[in-house]
């Protein structure tokens, strides 16, 4: 599930997805290392409860997608499952990884998007749309106080489309 991704690139042939924190002991990392592919699945708020269940069903011998009440379907261009209930799926190939620090159990991972599938009702902002309470979710994971290290539990956020601001660079 998409939650901590960021994106960079210059056009359809060069669209890069960066996962900033992937646990090297986790199912996703192990699958990515084996297949060199994954799908970033973008859920909306109406299936958030099932998305959270994938964390509890994340044992290596369990299909966390179906065990959480979601539907796995074959991706078109990579050997990884898409989640049918997600309105946006970015099929990706592995590019590189880098430990967050020497000996870290987490790594930053770069992926190249090779196929993007999106529900047409969500693509059109005047219909269901990509933004607002029915659109993209973004997991805001335990904001940490930089002075004390104390974390604050937090849940999903939504992305609201803002008012356009002109780019004046002179």
From TrEMBL:
InterPro entries: Flavin_Rdtase-like_dom (IPR002563), Split_barrel_FMN-bd (IPR012349). Its cofactor is FMN. Keywords: Flavoprotein, FMN. Residues 17-99 form the Flavin reductase like domain. Pfam families: Flavin_Reduct. Residues 141-151 have a biased composition (Polar residues). Residues 141-161 are annotated as: Disordered. The keyword Flavoprotein applies. SUPFAM superfamilies: FMN-binding split barrel (SSF50475). Belongs to the flavoredoxin family. This is Flavin reductase. It comes from Eisenbergiella tayi.
């Amino acid at each position: 599930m998409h939650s901590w991704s960021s994106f960079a690139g210059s056009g359809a042939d060069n669209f890069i997805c960066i996962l900033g924190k992937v646990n090297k002991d986790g199912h996703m990392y192990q699958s990515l290392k084996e297949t060199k592919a994954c799908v970033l699945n973008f859920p909306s708020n109406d299936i958030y409860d099932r998305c959270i269940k994938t964390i509890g069903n994340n044992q290596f011998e369990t299909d966390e997608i179906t065990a959480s009440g979601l539907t796995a379907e074959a991706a078109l261009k990579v050997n990884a499952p898409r989640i049918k209930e997600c309105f946006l799926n970015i099929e990706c190939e592995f590019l590189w990884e880098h430990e967050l620090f020497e000996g870290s159990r987490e790594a930053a991972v770069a992926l190249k998007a090779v196929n993007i599938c999106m529900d047409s009702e969500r693509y059109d902002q005047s219909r269901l749309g990509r933004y607002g309470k029915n659109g993209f979710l973004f997991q805001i994971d335990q904001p940490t106080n930089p002075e004390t290290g104390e974390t604050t539990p937090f849940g999903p956020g939504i992305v609201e489309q803002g008012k356009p601001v002109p780019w004046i660079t002179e």
